[in-house]
Amino acid sequence: MFERFTKDARAVVRGAVEHSERLGAETVEEGHLLLALLDREGSRGSFALMSLGLTGRARESVERMLAEVRRRGGLSRADADALSGLGIDVAEIVSRVEQAHGVGALGGDSKDKGWWSGRRTFTRGAKETLEKSLRIALGLRDRHIGDEHILLALTARPGVAAEALEDHGVTYETVTRVLYGGGEAKAG
């Protein structure tokens, strides 16, 4: 599948790996794909994000949200709300775990990396996002998978990245409108 990726899409995947390494994560997650997309300039995906106002301060907000999710052990707001409906206070659990084991203990990253081969694997969600980008490209009759398809896939799948994007008005519908018509701006 990777051979069908444009240079921009490949740069997003490589950037996601770099964000994973920089943040000390053992795996590459959807949030890392989103951060890598936010790094891009001069691509269709970056055009859509810029057109929808996701720049500068909004990027900082997304980074803070992703850090908070990591602190909660990867639970999205929807996950935390569902648990709250069952009477489980995620904030209280995080607080107690951090009191006992230190801040970020639920982040899942082991300090002992001795067993690790050095190659980061992609989480199931990140893999499914990349697979979804292929399905989206095929559905739009695009020959190659671009970073815009990764962006669309992130907005189409439930999860942390979609929540972060939606908080800034970036949804599947708004990205589609900007990229493929029906809106004022259209990427070329």
Concise synopsis of the structure shown:
The protein has 188 residues and is mainly alpha-helical.
From the structure above, extract its key features.
single chain; 188 residues; mainly alpha; Double Clp-N motif; globular
Explain how this protein is built.
This protein has 188 residues and is mainly α. It has a domain of 113 residues: Orthogonal Bundle (Double Clp-N motif), CATH 1.10.1780. Helix content is 60%, strand content 2%. The protein contains ten helices and two strands, in the order αβαααααβαααα. A two-stranded parallel sheet has the order 1-2. α1 crosses α2, α4 runs antiparallel to α9 and α7 packs across α8.
The CATH topology annotation of the domain at 2-73 and 140-180 reads as: Double Clp-N motif
Q: What distance separates the N and C termini?
A: 24 Å
Major beta sheet, strand line-up: 1-2
SSE arrangement, N to C: HEHHHHHEHHHH
Mean of the pLDDT scores?
83
The tally of strands reads 2
Percentage of residues in DSSP E strands: under 5%
Number of helices: 10
Task: Specify the biggest β-sheet.
Answer: 2 strands, parallel
Q: What is the radius of gyration?
A: 17 Å
**Given the C-alpha coordinates, what overall shape results?**
globular
The helix-and-strand class reads mainly alpha
